[in-house]
Write a structure and sequence with these properties.
Chain lengths: ~270, ~325
């Protein structure tokens, strides 16, 4: 572990303080170093895109932010990640509570085998929501741009929806818990272009209230939806393992127009590898 | 040169199409006849059951069979109230399920959700070995170990306070459906555990991840997401186990007794349907006599009950199974 004291230093680019901050984060699976020395700041109400070739550790880093890596027995995280100034890997932090503040949407839509209503009510209930459930469900579905399509069939199984609708249901489900950050791991990779477009529009809406980190393999998507872009790459070690690292992190325009690094330039222009 | 090559080709590649077609046909016939033998056997069994049952009901009225409260087919004044036997079967099976459901389900949850992959790989086969213990061993275990244990006399001072409490379970007789049911439960527990575990383990990890990502604790994930998603598999394992319990013979014949008695008192000797069939089959009942036909009627009843259970299970699984692609 690197230092544990909370860093209250002045923020780097923006005037506000970062919501999430990773400092020299290494992630191991067993004894294999998968990603090394990732440091980046994530600011409120922004969309941050993670791009990079397959296997460079985008998902791995993303899953560090809500401690989903705790569920992988072999995963080990070193370095420091702070959420609103507090170390999220400190011993007294409860990952369950952290995850209710940092939501996640997965690559493959994974609605529960329950009704649409129950899919959303579940998260609210376990987090002790005491307000009007019907209202919360309507609001969440509206925010996820799904309300009009499902308002007459809330009792129907969430699995009966189309893939794109399922993914928006998963977004609604995440929103209902009132998180501050939403992590999205390739949320559109299993969707058709129209559903993808819907979700991209949705992200633009959501960023007014939430901070969003989105992993994507789609360059256009990254440039369309994000304010900042982090480009990751992987280098091979002598014994054949690949170690991912953060190459460059800047505002999206810079990354796509005039990146500092040659590798970034090659990747975003499609001349990679 | 070209000619050479084509010659070489001819000599190296000589498929014998007619021959392989013939082999295909022979194989088809062999496999088909095996399949036919097993289907024919089943048909034969069912037909024998039906014919003898029809014969039986030529002599005994169906209404009498269903409504009489006595079962004395071997007496000169014979009574054929099947519910006497059904009550005993239901009683021992219900006790068995009460034992097997919590034990089996909890061990299934423990194995798939809490145990490490290594422990699971070791424990699961052991559990399945338990299912292979001959039932006659279970029967003697119930009769010679469990019943005496439950009938142990209470210490002096307890009896001084509560005079009626003379043995651990007062009123428990040497043959009873309580011991038989408990041991029956132990016997079917591995079946429930193993099949439920398969169902629970098959719930996709992505569902668990989805629940964890909303801030659910492990308990909440298991109770609200994993178990409902595995429900159809759990229920079908349960029904399979109930069918096993209903059809089980050795344990109940040994430990529950041979006394046809209507009622649901678990402390007294009773006679289940299977125990009756054993009793008559072992005796020297002449073929064609009414007692002989009775075992077919009882067998048919047993068969119908398990059939209905299995149809229900089939329907339930079809109705409630979730498909994840
Ligand atoms: N559960 C795990 N156990 C062991 N190694 C893992 C595990 N998950 C990921 N890895 C390894 O960590 C490295 C980074 O994987 P990760 O999934 O983070 O890549 P990614 O950038 O998200 O790739 P993709 O774009 O294909 O999703 C890979 O080499 C992968 O093999
Ligand atoms: Mg990934």
């Amino acid at each position: 572990m690197v230092t544990h004291k909370t860093t209250e230093q002045a923020s780097l680019t923006d005037t506000e303080k970062p919501v999430l901050r990773a400092k020299r984060v290494d992630v191991y699976y067993g004894n294999n170093l998968a990603v090394r020395e990732v440091s980046l700041d994530i600011f409120q109400h922004k969309v941050i895109a993670f791009i990079g070739p397959s296997g460079c550790g985008k998902s791995t880093i993303l899953r560090c932010f809500n401690r989903m890596n705790d569920l992988v027995p072999s995963a080990k995280v070193k370095g420091e990640i702070t959420f609103k100034g507090k170390d999220i890997y400190a011993p007294k932090v409860d990952p369950v509570e952290l995850r209710s503040q940092i939501g996640m949407v997965f690559q493959k839509p994974n609605p529960f085998p329950k009704s649409i209503y129950e899919n959303i009510a579940f998260g609210a209930r376990i987090n002790g929501y005491k307000g009007d459930m019907d209202q919360l469900i309507e609001e969440s579905l509206k925010k996820a741009a799904l309300w009009d399509e499902v308002k007459d069939k809330l009792k129907q199984s969430g699995l009966a929806l189309s893939g794109g609708q399922q993914q928006r249901l998963c977004i609604a489900r995440a929103i209902a818990v009132a998180p501050e950050v939403i992590l999205m791991d390739e949320p559109c990779s299993a969707l058709d272009p129209i559903s993808t477009l819907k979700i991209e529009e949705l992200i633009q809406e959501l960023k007014l209230q939430y901070t969003i980190i989105i992993v994507t393999h789609n360059m256009q998507q990254a440039s369309r939806v994000s304010d900042y872009t982090a480009f990751y790459n992987a280098e091979a070690t002598d014994d054949g393992d690949k170690i991912g690292y953060l190459v460059e992190y800047d505002d999206t325009e810079t990354i796509f127009q005039s990146p500092q690094q040659q590798a970034t330039q090659e990747y975003v222009s499609g001349r990679f590898g | 040169m070209t000619l050479d090559q084509s010659n070489k080709k001819v000599s190296l590649w000589q498929p014998n199409r007619p021959k392989s077609k013939l082999i295909e046909l022979i194989i088809k016939i062999i496999f088909g006849s095996f399949a036919f033998v097993s289907i024919a056997t089943t048909m034969g069994i069912v037909l024998t059951l039906i014919f003898n049952t029809v014969d039986f009901f030529k002599e005994v009225s169906f209404l009498h069979y269903l409504t009489d409260t006595k079962w004395t087919p071997l007496f000169s004044s014979a009574n054929f109230g099947i519910f006497v036997l059904i009550s005993a079967t239901v009683l021992s099976s219900v006790i068995a399920i009460v034992v097997a459901l919590p034990l089996g389900l909890l061990s299934a949850i423990c194995l798939s959700e809490y145990a490490t992959e290594r422990t699971r790989k070791i424990l699961k086969p052991i559990l399945e070995i338990l299912a292979g213990v001959p039932t006659v061993v279970y029967g003697y275990f119930a009769l010679l170990f469990l019943t005496p244990l439950l009938r142990l006399p209470m210490p002096e001072w307890v009896q001084n306070i509560i005079p009626a409490w003379d043995q651990f379970i007062p009123g428990l007789q040497g043959f009873n459906s309580l011991s038989a049911g408990i041991v029956l439960g132990i016997m079917i527990m591995p079946l429930v555990a193993s099949l439920s575990e398969d169902a629970i383990y098959a719930v996709p990890q992505s569902l668990r991840d989805g629940a964890y990502a909303l801030g659910a604790t492990k308990r909440e994930v298991i109770i609200s997401v994993v178990l409902p998603a595995a429900l159809s598999g759990i229920v079908s394992s349960l029904i399979l186990a109930i069918s096993r319990a209903i059809g089980e013979t050795m344990i109940v014949a040994l430990a529950a007794g041979q006394n046809p008695r209507l009622g649901l008192n678990p402390f007294v000797p009773v006679m289940t349907m299977t125990a009756f069939i054993v009793q008559v089959s072992l005796g020297d009942t002449p073929a064609g006599s009414i007692a002989y036909k009775t075992i077919y009627a009882v067998g048919m009843t047993l068969f119908l009950i398990t059939l209905v259970l299995n149809i229900f299970s089939f329907w339930f699984v079809r109705r409630f199974r979730e498909k994840y692609d």
